[in-house]
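Meet our chain:
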Amino acid sequence: MRFTTIEEEIAVTKFKKGIEREIEGYFEEKGFNLIEPPIFQKYDKYMASNYRQDSSAIVKVLGGGSNILVLRPDITINVLGDIFSKWEGDYPLKIYYNSKVYYNGPESWVAANHQMGIESLGEDVLVGDTQALEMASIILGILKEPYILEIGYSKYLDGFFNEIQLSIDDENELKELISKKNRCELKDKVGKLALNNTLLDRILDIQGDIEDVVDMAAPFCINGEMKESIEQLEKIREFLVDKGYKENIKLDLSMIADYHYYDGLIFKGYSISSPKKILSGGRYDRLTEEFEMRVPAIGFMVDMDYITRIRIGGENGGKGYNSNS
């Protein structure tokens, strides 16, 4: 964050620290323990685990022995490497972090984004999914204004693509068009691939109220992976309805994960007053295989810079602080 006066910086930092303590207290109440992520990651390891990441944004550093390192651009991959080098496999392991990620900002500046988040390893999949969604809902409630938690389930669409066996290029192009909600070009591409009258004709419409969307998606299942996805979503739907979170939840089965390592539930949180993402996360069991120990794993991060800005704006009648972060 950048400020115009030192008084403004002190006031905002104090205010932000209060929000941090509130979130830390909640994480610890739910059984999560603090961990400090390493600041550097191996460049090749990071790039192998990411998808849809702009490599030009990554801050590269030349380490000893001419090894190329990156200044922590993603906390999940960073913290998992540290955990799995020490963890003896006692389940479940629940940790949280309060740290920063770095990227190349404008005018060659190295910019930072303050994030807090959780990682839950070894917990039952349904328990982990529902706890993550409940915790995300509670954290978004800290905004003290209406919010939307948008959820998806990557295995549903992946199951469809696994069944039709397209080339990698065609599959990636379709996913890119779906991600951008580009209805016109998606229709053209589907026609060229002779995939009319399939899920792809309707995928952009399978979103909305979770109670309706799960039922809307079920008839398009063509294999066990898609059916299992619907079964899991039915259980998640039941939990959210019973807990009273349904009104703030939107299910979008056209949601494409930001990182390829997500393989199940994915979700993003927004303030009703702004389109910028405040919170994001998902299930990443597949990623743990890179550390030679596949376990159920889910987590999410909160953008602390942005949540602070929204809270200050709300308490000042919409007048926030001047920040170029």
